[in-house]
Every structure is written in C-alpha cells, then in structure tokens.
Amino acid sequence: MDVRSGPSKHLFLQGTAVLTIAALLIKIMSAAYRVPYQNIVGDIGFYIYQQVYPFYGIAIMLATTGFPVIISKMMIEFVEKGNASSNSKILRVSFLFLFAVGLIFYLILYIGSDQLASFMGDPELAPLIRVISFSFLLVPFVSILRGYFQGEENMLPTAVSQVAEQGIRVLTILIFSYLLINNGYSLYEAGQGALFGSLTGGFAAFILLAVFLSKDKRGVSFFGKNDSSIRTSHILSYLVKHSLTISITSLMIIFIQLIDAMQLYSELLKNGFEMSDAKRMKGIYDRGQPLIQLGTVVATSFSLSLVPLIAYAKRSGNHAVISERITASLKICTVVGAGASAGLIMIMEPLNIMLFKNESGTEVLAVLSLSVIFTSYSLTLAAILQGLNYTVFPAFAVLIGTAAKLALNELLVPEFGTAGAAFATVAAYGVIAGLNTGYLKSKGYGLAGRVNTGKVAAAALIMMGALFAYSALFSESWMAGNRLAASAGALCGALFGGTIYLIAILKLSIFTQKELEAFPGGKKLGAFLK
C-alpha cells in the first residue's frame, strides 16, 4: 500500500529535486578540488591521496546514498504497521546496526592498516589509512539523522548537511595540504592532513543535522517506549538485505577505484618500475578520476531526477508513463554521456595541460574518458531498476563488473601498464552497463532504440571530426606546454565541440518536440534550428 498521495507526493518529489541539486553540487566539488590539490602536491602526492581515498569513498557513500535511503524506505514502508513508536524502534534498531557496521569497518582499517598498506605495496600509507578509519565512526550518527529526515519527507537537512560536509572537507584538504607542503612536511604527512578533512566534514554534517533535529516539531524519540508491532528481526533482515544491494550499487565507482588502489602500484613494481616512477605513473593515471566524475555528473543528474516518477508510476500501475520515463532518461544519458566521452577524448591534451600542468598520460586519460558513457549508463540503469523495485540485480552487476576489473588488471597491466588498467576500467563499466541493460529488457521495458543510438553515434562522430580539424589548426599553440595557451585551447575546443554536437543532435531529431520542451529554452532552441 502506498501511504502517500496528493500534496505528500508533490512534497516528496520537491524534496527529491532538492537532493538532486545537492548531489550535483557535491559531485562538482568532489571532482573540482582534485585539480588544485594535484597542483599543490604533484603527481606523487596525488597518488598518495588517491590510494587511500576509496576507503573514505565507502564511508561517504554509505552515509549519503546508502544507509539514509534504506532507513527512509523502511520508515515509509512500515509506517502503516504501527503507531508513532514504530519510527522510534526503527531508528533505535537501525542505529545499533549501523554502529556495529561502522565499528567493524573502523577496526578492520585501524588494526589492519599495516597489512593493507603492505598489500598495496606501500607501507608508508598505513598512517593515512588509520586517519581515514575514524570516518566510519561518524557514519551511524550522520546516517541515522539523514534517514530520519528523509523518512519524514524533509530532504532539506540532508541536502544542507551534504553540501556543508563536502565544502568544509574540500577547504580542509586544500588549506592543510598547502600549509604542510609549504612548511616542509613530507607528501605523506600532507596526505594525512588532507584526509583529516574527512573528519572535519563529517563533524560539520552531524552538528548541522543535530541543529535541525533540535528544531524538529515532531520531536521524535530515538529511545521511545518499545510498544511497536514491528519485530526487531524484521528490521534487521531489511537492513541486511538492502545494505547488500543498495549500498553495493551506490559504491560502483568506488569499487573500481579500490581495485586500482590495491593492485596497480604493486603490479607496476612487480614489472620492474622504480618506486618513484610507479608512484608518479599511478598519480598521472588518477588524473582521470575527476574527469570521469565531471563527465558523468551531468548525464546522471538529468536522468536520476526522473527516477522517483518511475517509482510512483510503478506503484500506480501506469506502464505507459514508466516506459516514457525510462526512454527519456536513457536518451538523455546516452546523448550527454556520448558527447562527454567523445569531447574529452578530442580535447584531452590541452585539457590535461590546463588542469595538471603537463600532457603526461594524455593517451591513458583519453582511454579512461571512454568510461564516461558506460558509467553514466550504468548509474542511470541501476537507479531505474531501483525505482522499479529491482534492487538485487544492479548489485549483482556491480560485483560482476568489479570481478572483471580485477581479472583484466591482472591480465593487461603487466603488458600495457596504466593503459591496461584504463582499458580494464572501461571494460568493467561496459560489463555493468550491459548486464543492467539486458535485465531491464528482460522485464519488458524498451530502451532508447537502435535508431536513436545510431543518431547519437553520428552526432558524436561529427563533433569528433570538427574537433580533429580544430586541433590540427591550433595544436601548435599548446604543444610547447604553455598552460595559458592550453587553457584557451581546451575551453574554446569544449565550446566549439559542444556547439557542433548540439546542432547535430537537434538536426538529427534525436529528441521529439515534446521532449525538447521539457528542457529550459528547449522549445525556442528547437524552433531556431529547424
């Protein structure tokens, strides 16, 4: 039974829009700060940070899109089964479960830091792993409050806390790393200072959420009377099941990064590279992470805003609306993801110089750019499947893709180095996207269609041709490594390529007039280019 209707439904959808905007800001900040950070600490310093970052990424995803979603879903689904004490029991049992999970992660990382660092091939990473382990102790406190507010359909506290957490974290990272490097501390000590941002950001989020709770008129008691009809075993089984599905799905990108953190540097050492060279190569390879994030964020932010509508249509049995929303979200994802991948490949050299001071690793980063389309598609498909209440298979697809990444790294890195790892990443995301596509089709839902896919490919090729000519004309200006010239070349190339791609998309009629009208200014733009 769906207990929400009318104004409540609109309130929930407005709240989802608030969370989508917050997620967009967070992803932009998460990608953007890595550029000045790399500029401060260099490629080896960037390698040090990125080696440990996936552990923090697990904590932040669990506290952002993992546990709060599970708790809020439980509050919404169980609300009809009890009285006001039901929420208290859900929150109390959930907190104890999350505290146990956070404590286990903390102990594994803190006690096992030396073993993990040795396994990664760099024992000096152990103190950084110990710093990051403390972030898991904050996860239950932040998650339970976010889950409570989301369950009450109040998304503002979650959104504000997420943006504040990321903003303070980014400031801490950049300020501490700058001060430590300029005062003669080592790159590893600068990395510890940067990772301290995980704690400052988490504390800021908790304080903000506590302030919101103190002003909450509902006055929920986390330790109310235990007279709810909901069984503790039911709550725990729900938490376990959804922790292993929703959380695994949300950790897709982090898992792929973690494989590289655990494997790539040690594999480079095994294949004869000196320690400093291997660290520098891994740091250059990690330049691709912010590029993938920025390339992915636009596609997924447009598409994921449609997912709540899919969930509501599913509940009401409106299959026509479901098909329409799925087709629209996948079409947007395909267009934006393909354009971002193709554009990044063509302007990678000046973009690399603009962001990271030199052209090192341009070819590897170009290969990694291919993963943008598959990453966008995988995230969107997973969200659609979750909206349709198919939560198990997307998690299964992530595990298969992660296993594929692990196996391909073992096969390709010894032969091709970081380029092999880049190909393995693209293939892993391709596997996840392919599995989710097949599963969605098996449930009887149509996709974007071969004709539209062909048109998008044609538009991307037109843009790539135009950018190839552009590079042929102006590449001499940045080939000498002039950062200012490269910046101008990258930005002008992005504007030129984006304009060509947009015109091609509209001229090929990939979007219907009705679909265009859903975009700001889309109606006028479509009429202008007819």
Automatic annotation (TrEMBL):
Entry-linked CDD domains = MATE_SpoVB_like (cd13124)
Q: Which UniProt keywords apply?
A: Cell membrane, Membrane, Transmembrane, Transmembrane helix
Q: Name one Pfam family in it.
A: Polysacc_synt
Looking at the UniProt entry, the stretches that span the membrane are 12-33, 53-72, 93-111, 131-149, 170-188, 194-214, 235-259, 291-312, 332-353, 365-385, 392-408, 420-440, 452-473, 485-506
Positions in coiled-coil regions: none
Tell where it localizes: Cell membrane
Asked if the keyword Cell wall biogenesis/degradation belongs to this entry, the reply reads no
> Does this UniProt record's set of keywords contain Transmembrane?
yes
Q: Name one GO cellular component term.
A: plasma membrane
* Protein's membrane topology: Multi-pass membrane protein
Recorded superkingdom: Bacteria
Indicate what this protein is called per its UniProt record: Uncharacterized protein
Organism for this UniProt entry: Metabacillus indicus
